[in-house]
Every structure is written in C-alpha cells, then in structure tokens.
C-alpha cells in the first residue's frame, strides 16, 4: 500500500489542507509525486483541495486510509529519513574501511542534523535555505502576475491592503463594548470558511449554541433572533435545513466555549495540535489567562504574558490568530476619528505584538446603527486605511460598502442577541 497515496486520500477526505504544509515533495517516492503536485497546484489555483473523484479522473489511484492525514505525514517523514540513512550508510561503511573515523563522523553529523530537522522541525533555519525559498516564492508570484493571497477577510479593501491573513499573524480586532466586535469577527470567520478554509472559534462569553446560531445566520441570511424564536418563514426554514445538511461537504468549523476557569492559552495550543485549523478566532481574548501565570502577577503583567503566548502560538503553528480586545474607557466608539495605537485596555502588548491592528467604531450619522467603520492602524509592511461595512440583520449583511455608494442604506439593525 502506498504511504504517500494514503496521505493524499486522508487529506482530501477531510477538505482540510493544513497537513499539506507539513510535507515536502521530496518526502514522496516517484509514483506518488505527480499526485502530490496535482493536489498542491489545485489548492494554489482554486484555494480548495481536489476531491478524490477529481484525482481519479486525472489518473491518480488513491490507497485506502484509516488514519488522519497528520499521522501519514509523520510516517512520510520517517520514511524519508530512513531512505537518507540507507543512501549514506555506504559512505559511512566506506569511511570505516579506510579507517577514517573523522569522515564517518562527518556523515553521521550531517544525517543527524538533516534527519532531526525533518522529524522534529526546528524554528532555526539558514539564510541560504530561506533565500532559496524566497527566490522560489518570488518567481511564482512574478509568473502569476499577482502576490500570494493569504486567507481573505472578505472585505476587498482590507484584503487589498493586507493581502489577507497569513501564517504567524496575530491580528487584533478592538473596539468599545457593544460596538459589534464579535459580529465583525464572525463575519471574517464566515468569509474565511467560504474561501475553503477550516476555522476554529473560541469564545470567552458566548455559548456554542449562540455561536452556531450566528454562524448559520451568515450562511442563510436569516435574522438570528428569528432562528432563536423559531419564527422563520417557510422559505427561510427550508434554506436553513438545506444549509445544515450541506455542512458535511464543507470545511470543518470548530467551536469552544468551556467555562472561564479553564481558559488559558493552553486551549489555543490544544486546538491547533488536535484540529489544525487554517485560522483561529478568539472572542473576548482579553479574558484569557497566560499558561505560565505566576501568583504574584499584576493584571497588566498577565495580559502582556498572555498576548505574547498568543503570538508565539501563531508563529509556532504557522497559522493566523484573530483576537478580539476592548479599547480603554477613554475611547469613544461613536467618534468621527480612529482610535490611536495604545488605546487597548489591559496592556500595550496588544499593539506591540500584533501583526495587524483593526479598530471597530460606529458608522457616520445617520447610519451609526446600520454600519461600522474598520480602521487598519497597524499592518505588517503594507498601507493603513479605513473602510465601512454594513451592519444589518434583516437580512444579515456585513458586506463592505463601496466608497462611491451614496448614503442610502435603511436602518435594519433591529436585534437583541
């Protein structure tokens, strides 16, 4: 049975592309490489994995798999290291026949370094290796005629400014209480899911039922209050039932809302280790506790340590994390100007450790209730800017408002959740 084809079968059966990042082409043997390239190129072109049927139609015979893709990825690494050792074993034997232990030790050290890096990837790398990767990325972008997009926020202006959410990003979404930060976060999660990405959502305040209800309202456009009250129209009910039945064919979405007593950044590590989502969203992230908290820590020190641990997790797992935080009391969410960096409550680490910082405030009069303004006040190396989005619930509408659109929106933001 082909180990590489088992990996690919397991990978495409879950629609979660994350394990693909844990393998390289050289891990596959000759007859497996064409299937690996097909899957990789399909993901780059279409942002989703091919189906098993598509693979078979293109001449790739898959092998039966019973384990998750991550298991087979580990076995592929082991097989690759075994092959390396087998190939270099004759060099060690030749050195020993020549009674040249120094040469034998050199080969052993090379194998130990390379094999160890494959089996247990380190965070350190060399400029030579990373430079080659940089050139390969540059040539691919040059050939495609456009830069590689990360996971989209779903707002064209924000995606253009940031090129989407990238691995290692800590993205802070901040605003005053009751401005709608959780809804904007869920809108971003929904857009990422629509782009074929697996999503995990942790909440410090909402129950899982609340999160699911809101998420389904994005899929159907139905007012979440009507879902909760059981008063949807016949047409909306039919739409919701069909949407829920179709979830098995879509990328997974994981929710967690366990009790506050057990909310620390260890939960973030657990989510990535067990489910490997493409992106993680954390509502009311300021309520998280650091994993390495000391009893004598002040509130400011706890916040700083916790934010640092979030950033470390984003880098270690090479995934973006979107964390929702609050502004301090001095910031007016209905002000006509964006809040400055340093306005976050709890600790300056929210601004310092973030890759991107996005403020949320009410829209301009008379549309304070039916729109929100997003202020990108920190970006990686890209531009800063502002955009306005709808904030409506009848139907659910969180789309971006084009700059040239006249202010003619109806106020349809009646909701109570």
Describe the structure.
This protein is an alpha/beta fold and 417 residues long. Helix content is 45%, strand content 12%. It has helices spanning 3-14, 30-46, 52-57, 69-97, 101-119, 127-144, 156-162, 181-194, 208-220, 224-229, 234-245, 265-275, 299-317, 349-353, and strands at residues 170-175, 199-203, 253-256, 279-283, 321-326, 356-362, 371-378, 385-390, 392-393, 396-397. The strands form two sheets. The protein has an eight-stranded mixed sheet with strand order 3-2-4-5-1-6-7-8, sandwiched between helices. It has a two-stranded antiparallel sheet with strand order 9-10. Helix 13 links the parallel strand 4 (279-283) and strand 5 (321-326). The model is unreliable at 406-417 (pLDDT under 50).
Globular, elongated, flat, extended or rod-shaped: what is the shape?
globular
Strand-residue proportion: 5-15%
Strand segment tally: 10
Instruction: Please count the helical segments.
Output: 14
Q: Widest sheet: strand order?
A: 3-2-4-5-1-6-7-8
Global structural class: alpha/beta
Head-to-tail CA distance between termini: 53 Å
Radius of gyration: 24 Å
Determine the mean pLDDT. Answer: 85
What's the story with the biggest beta sheet?
8 strands, mixed
Uncertain regions: pLDDT < 50 for 5+ in a row? Answer: 406-417
What's the SSE pattern?
HHHHHHHEHEHHHEHEHEHEEEEE
Please estimate the helix content.
Answer: 40-55%
């Amino acid at each position: 049975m082909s180990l590489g084809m088992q990996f690919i079968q397991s990978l495409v059966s879950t629609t979660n592309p994350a394990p693909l990042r844990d393998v390289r082409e050289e891990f596959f043997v000759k007859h497996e490489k064409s299937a690996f390239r097909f899957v990789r190129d399909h993901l780059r072109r279409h942002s989703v994995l091919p189906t098993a049927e598509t693979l078979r139609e293109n001449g790739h015979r898959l092998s039966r798999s019973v384990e998750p893709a991550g298991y087979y990825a580990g076995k592929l690494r082991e097989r690759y290291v075994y092959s390396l050792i087998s190939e270099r074993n004759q060099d060690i034997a030749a050195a020993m026949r020549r009674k040249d232990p120094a040469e034998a030790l050199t080969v052993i050290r090379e194998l130990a370094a390379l094999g160890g890096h494959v089996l247990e990837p380190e965070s350190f790398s060399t400029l030579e290796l990373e430079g080659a990767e940089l050139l390969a990325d540059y040539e691919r972008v040059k050939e495609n005629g456009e830069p590689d997009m990360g996971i989209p926020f779903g707002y064209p202006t924000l995606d253009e400014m940031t090129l989407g959410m990238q691995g290692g990003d800590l993205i802070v979404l901040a605003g005053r209480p009751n401005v709608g930060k959780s809804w904007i976060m869920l809108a971003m999660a929904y857009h990422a899911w629509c782009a074929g990405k697996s999503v995990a959502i942790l909440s410090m305040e909402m129950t899982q039922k609340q999160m699911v209800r809101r998420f389904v309202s994005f899929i159907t456009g139905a007012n979440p209050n009507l879902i909760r009250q059981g008063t949807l129209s016949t047409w909306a009910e039919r739409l919701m039932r069909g949407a829920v039945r179709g979830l098995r064919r879509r990328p997974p979405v994981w929710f967690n809302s366990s009790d506050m007593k057990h909310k620390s950044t260890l939960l973030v590590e657990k989510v990535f280790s067990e489910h490997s989502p493409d992106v993680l969203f954390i509502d009311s992230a300021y309520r998280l506790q650091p994993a390495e908290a000391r009893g004598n820590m002040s509130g400011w020190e706890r916040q700083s340590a916790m934010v640092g641990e979030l950033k470390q997790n984003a880098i270690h797992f090479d995934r973006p994390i979107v964390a929702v935080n609050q502004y301090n009391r001095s910031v007016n969410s209905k002000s006509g100007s964006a809040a400055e960096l340093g306005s976050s409550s709890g600790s300056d680490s929210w601004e310092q450790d973030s890759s991107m910082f996005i403020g949320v405030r009410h829209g301009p009069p008379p549309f304070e209730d039916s729109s929100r303004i997003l202020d990108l006040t920190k970006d990686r190396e890209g531009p800063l800017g502002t955009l306005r989005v709808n904030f409506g619930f009848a139907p659910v509408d969180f789309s971006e408002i084009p700059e040239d659109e006249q202010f003619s929106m109806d106020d349809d933001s009646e909701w109570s959740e």
